[in-house]
């Protein structure tokens, strides 16, 4: 995991490694070298990076094929980072190319990749989770075993943290047919687990989500549902 963060931090600043006086070029350095030596040593090197340097780095990474083979990376870590890059790029071929790759990962990635990326998008770009296929994948993610370790609890909390997503995923489903109400119940269960976990670590932001009137109303509605399966 640490290696993935280092690689991504280095990749975001690859424009600084242009060949100078016989020094290795970014491509010649290879993936194993991108995370070494100064600029790749911090997992959050992207923070504060201006748009133009980021665009230059993405342009180099795309043109040299550095994003084509990521088998050595932790995809649940990599794809949310790529999504954040895509959101910061100005309109152009680089933004479209990176967006296409992110969308492919969202549709075709394994459970852990999908859940982590969907959580990131729920917090940053709620509309990205529209469409029947993605809705179905979200619903399936909420049914994964609690011990699966995919991060579904974090996804559930993200879905009720944004008012527009909470109306769509919780309030609307809590008023629907039995399958919809069961989905709303699972959403609350998973979100409550994540809120409780964070509260134990001193972060009460998740608990505050459950204090919103609309969330409390959905909770009460489901607890008092006439169908025990809800």
Structural description of this entry:
The chain is an all-alpha fold and 230 residues long. It has a domain at 133-230. The protein has helices at 2-11, 26-29, 31-34, 51-63, 75-88, 93-108, 111-124, 132-141, 152-161, 163-174, 178-200, 205-209, 213-223. It is elongated. It starts with a helix and ends in a 7-residue tail after the last helix.
State the low-pLDDT regions, or none. Answer: 19-47
How much β-strand is present in the residues?
under 5%
Shape: elongated
Mean pLDDT: 78
Please give the radius of gyration in angstroms: 20 Å
By secondary-structure content and strand pairing, the structural class works out as mainly alpha
How far the N terminus sits from the C terminus, by CA atoms, comes to 38 Å
Q: Count the strands?
A: 0
Q: Give the SSE order as H and E letters.
A: HHHHHHHHHHHHH
Distinct helical segment count? 13
Query: What's the main sheet like?
Result: none
Helix share of residues? 55-70%
Topology:
Layout: H1 2-11, H2 26-29, H3 31-34, H4 51-63, H5 75-88, H6 93-108, H7 111-124, H8 132-141, H9 152-161, H10 163-174, H11 178-200, H12 205-209, H13 213-223
Helix pairs in contact: 5-6, 5-7, 6-7, 7-9, 9-11, 10-11, 10-13
Feature tags:
single chain, about 230 residues, mainly alpha, 13 helices
Give a short synopsis of this structure.
With 230 residues, this protein is mainly α.
């Amino acid at each position: 995991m640490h290696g993935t963060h280092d690689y991504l931090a280095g990749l975001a600043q690859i424009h600084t490694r242009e060949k100078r006086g016989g020094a290795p070029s970014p491509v010649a350095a290879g993936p194993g070298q991108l995370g070494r030596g100064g600029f790749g040593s911090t997992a959050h090197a992207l923070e504060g990076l201006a748009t133009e340097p980021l665009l230059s780095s993405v342009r180099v990474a795309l043109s040299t094929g550095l994003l084509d083979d990521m088998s050595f990376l932790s995809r649940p870590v990599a794809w949310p980072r790529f999504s954040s890059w895509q959101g910061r790029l100005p309109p152009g071929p680089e933004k479209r190319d990176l967006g296409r790759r992110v969308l492919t990962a969202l549709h075709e990635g394994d459970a852990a990749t999908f859940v982590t990326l969907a959580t990131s998008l729920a917090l940053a770009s709620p509309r990205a989770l529209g469409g029947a296929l993605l809705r179905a994948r979200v619903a399936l993610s909420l049914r994964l075993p609690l011990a699966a370790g995919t991060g579904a609890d974090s996804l559930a909390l993200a879905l009720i943290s944004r008012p527009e997503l909470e109306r769509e995923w919780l309030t609307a489903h809590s008023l629907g047919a039995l399958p919809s109400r069961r989905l709303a119940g699972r959403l609350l269960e998973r979100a409550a687990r994540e809120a409780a976990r964070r509260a134990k670590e001193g972060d009460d932001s998740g608990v505050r989500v459950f204090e919103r009137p609309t969330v409390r109303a959905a909770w009460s509605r489901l607890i008092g549902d006439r169908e025990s399966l809800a």
